[in-house]
Amino acid sequence: MPAGLRLLPGWLDREAQQALLGEIRAVVAAAPLFTPVMPRTGTPFSVRMTNCGPLGWVSDRAGYRYQPLHPVTGQPWPAMPQALLDLWRELAPDAPLPEACLVNFYGPKARMGLHQDKDEATFEVPVVSVSLGATALFRLGGRSRKDPTRSFRLASGDVLVLGGEARLAHHGIDRLLSGTSTLVRDDGRINLTLRRVTPG
DNA sequence: TAGTCACT
DNA sequence: ACAT
């Protein structure tokens, strides 16, 4: 494993997953899911997204960016659930608090191409990723897009920390495994990505 | 290259 | 590999 990568299988028990899911449903009620599109081309993503916390990640024809307001409602993003702040404190005790929690909703056919999380103004702080629902085939590469990749499963309750050398590793979701979600309806998957955006 | 598509 |  690359230094700075931590895969924590089953970090959240079923009860914690259900509690978190409830919090996320409340976030979605206040900040409805939207379909991001690619810069320039406008090609839609197959995942739908929303955010919570002071800043949210969005993609539209103008580009990728963090912004304080929901692109459709114009309202501020809902507050970050305390459970996520607690998780962050536990896994990144020395880091400043996260400013953004990107909530990605995957249907059974949704995918996410290889990419880097590099729209933040600092890379010194780890990214913390929480999986809920269907099991996904996750692909992890290196800092260069040409670096070799490997894939492994991310199941509900797994937590992934990308820090240090792994902070700028390319990563993506190849596909979901059908029939693996007992938490989210319709074989869905939810990924929560906690990020510090500013150096703090 | 956070997208798709062709081909192996 | 494409094409923004």
Helices and strands, with pairings:
Elements: E1 5-8, H1 14-30, E2 48-52, E3 56-60, E4 63-67, H2 82-91, E5 100-106, E6 112-115, E7 127-133, E8 136-140, E9 150-154, E10 159-162, E11 171-176, E12 189-195
Antiparallel strand pairs: 1-10, 2-5, 3-4, 5-12, 6-11, 7-10, 7-12, 8-9, 8-11
The protein binds two DNA strands through residues 36-41, 43-47, 57, 59, 64, 104, 112-117, 145, 172.
Question: Tags for this entry?
Answer:
200 residues, alpha+beta, Jelly Rolls, six-stranded antiparallel sheet, four-stranded antiparallel sheet, 2 helices, DNA-binding
The biggest beta sheet reads: 6 strands, antiparallel
User: What is the highest CATH level, the class?
Assistant: Mainly Beta
Number of domains: 1
Strand order of the largest sheet: 1-10-7-12-5-2
Q: For the residues shown, what is the average pLDDT?
A: 97
- Helix and strand run: EHEEEHEEEEEEEE
The Rg value, from CA coordinates, equals 16 Å
CATH structural architecture: Sandwich
CATH topology: Jelly Rolls
Shape: globular
Distance between the termini: 29 Å
Poorly predicted runs are none
The SS-based structural class is: alpha+beta
User: CATH H level: which superfamily?
Assistant: Alpha-ketoglutarate-dependent dioxygenase AlkB-like
